[in-house]
């Protein structure tokens, strides 16, 4: 198996493993994280109704990731959300993903 296919297979398996355990509700939505080459996107999703409650994005980087976590926490508080489930997708829990999570926790939202 080529190296790229093996990496993509591992990502797909990790994403499915993480996602299978999470289901967002109106009281505790799923915080879905996506990393592109330039930006970090996060959205709070109510899986029961199938719609996004709030969303935000910022440029990549650890400092910007912390600000993004704080920003999504403020938007969540305005929407009446007190707790979220972090859906990290195929990404490992370190670096920017961990920093976004810490930004949300530091703003008073329970993960």
Brief digest:
By secondary structure, the chain is of the alpha+beta class. Helices cover 41% and strands 23% of the residues. Helix 2 packs parallel to helix 3.
Label this structure with key terms.
111 residues; alpha+beta; 4-stranded mixed beta sheet; 4 strands; 23% strand
Structure description:
This protein is α+β, with helices and mostly antiparallel strands. Helices cover 41% and strands 23% of the residues. The chain has 3 helices and 4 strands, in the order αβββαβα. It has helices spanning 3-20, 62-78, 96-106; strands at 30-35, 39-46, 51-59, 85-87. The chain has a 4-stranded mixed β-sheet, covered by helices on one side. It is globular and about 50 Å long.
Shape: globular
Please give the order of strands in the largest beta sheet: 3-2-1-4
What is the SS-derived class?
alpha+beta
CA-atom Rg in angstroms: 14 Å
Distance between the termini: 37 Å
Low-confidence stretches: none
The overall pLDDT, averaged over residues, is 94
Helix content: 40-55%
How many distinct beta strands?
Answer: 4
SSE pattern, N- to C-terminal: HEEEHEH
Query: How many helices?
Result: 3
Beta-strand content bin: 15-25%
Major sheet, described briefly? 4 strands, mixed
């Amino acid at each position: 198996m080529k190296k790229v296919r093996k990496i993509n297979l591992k990502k797909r398996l990790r994403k499915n493993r993480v996602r299978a355990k999470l289901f967002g509700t109106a009281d505790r939505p799923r915080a879905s994280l996506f990393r592109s080459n330039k930006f970090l996107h996060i959205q709070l999703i109510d899986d029961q109704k199938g719609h996004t409650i709030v969303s935000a994005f910022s440029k990549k980087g650890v400092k910007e990731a912390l600000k993004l976590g704080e920003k999504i926490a403020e938007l969540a508080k305005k929407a009446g959300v007190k707790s979220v489930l972090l859906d990290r997708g195929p990404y490992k829990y370190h670096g920017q993903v961990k920093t976004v999570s810490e930004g949300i926790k530091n703003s008073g939202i329970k993960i």
